[in-house]
Design goal:
about 250 residues, elongated, seven-stranded antiparallel β-sheet, single chain, about 35% helix, alpha+beta, 7 strands
């Protein structure tokens, strides 16, 4: 009887352990499914909230500097869709009549004041910019913009100007020509904090790369600081050899 009782006890324990294992696997499977579902929803959300730049690149359109809509628009419907997603575009095209809007080509060259976008602000040029004959514009009869960038044009000067206005030829250069980096002009009073700090061993401001904004050329350490120089023809001290060993210099 004692043997039968022990067998039944072990059998009960085995059944209980099996149930725990099955329950754990089911829970893990549900958690995994939920995680995958959440990840899919997150990915879909990211795709739907991607800026117009990404969509424009997918269509193979050139992206011009300082575009109100990177990649521009092809028709009034696209402009309306982007306006619904981008508050800056919506404000810039407030009052635009999408039903009456048409895309046309300029019959002759024109000189106009041009709007342009810097991050979340839209400015107007202080000087007129020349639009070439044949360029496509979108217009509702009152508001007109270039289709390639959605930058509005105006015959009259506007008040919203910037002291750091780009040169007029910058609006005609696609960003792909120089790798897609947005140009940023530092004010004339800009001074790198690195140049105003006390010099560190081996750091010489005279060796900075022009246009590097105060960063010394990298030499493999990832610090931007040149290694300490050792006089030619002199013997290294044990301390110098130890320091070089720690820094990986041989």
């Amino acid at each position: 009887m004692r043997l039968i009782a022990l067998c039944l006890l072990f059998l009960g324990l085995a059944v209980g352990a099996l149930r725990l294992i099955l329950s754990h696997n089911e829970s893990t499977s549900l958690d995994s499914s939920r995680t995958d579902s959440q990840a899919g929803a997150t990915a879909q959300s990211l795709i739907s909230s991607m800026p117009p730049t990404a969509a424009a690149n997918q269509h193979g359109r050139p992206v011009y500097r300082y575009s109100v809509i990177p990649g521009g628009v092809q028709d009034p419907a696209e402009l309306q869709r982007v306006s619904a997603q981008d508050r800056i575009v919506a404000a810039h095209f407030a009052g635009f009549d999408y039903r009456r809007a048409r895309v046309v080509r300029l019959q002759q060259a024109r000189e106009v004041y041009l709007s342009y976008r810097v991050r979340d602000r839209v400015f107007w040029t202080r000087k007129k910019v020349r639009l070439a004959a044949g360029e496509k514009v979108i217009s509702d009869g009152k508001i007109t913009a270039r289709t390639r960038c959605a930058n509005r044009v105006s015959e009259t000067k506007q008040a919203a100007v910037s002291p750091e206005e780009p040169p007029s030829d910058a609006f005609d250069r696609p960003m792909e020509e120089d790798g897609g980096a947005m140009q940023f002009r530092f004010p004339s009073t800009f001074d790198s904090a690195l140049l105003s700090r006390p010099q560190m061993p081996g750091f010489d401001p005279g060796n900075l790369i022009p246009g590097s904004a105060g960063l010394a050329p990298l030499v493999g350490w990832g610090t931007g600081i040149a290694p300490p120089s050792i006089p030619v023809g002199s013997c290294e001290t044990p301390a110098q050899e130890k320091l070089e060993g720690q820094l990986g210099v041989f």
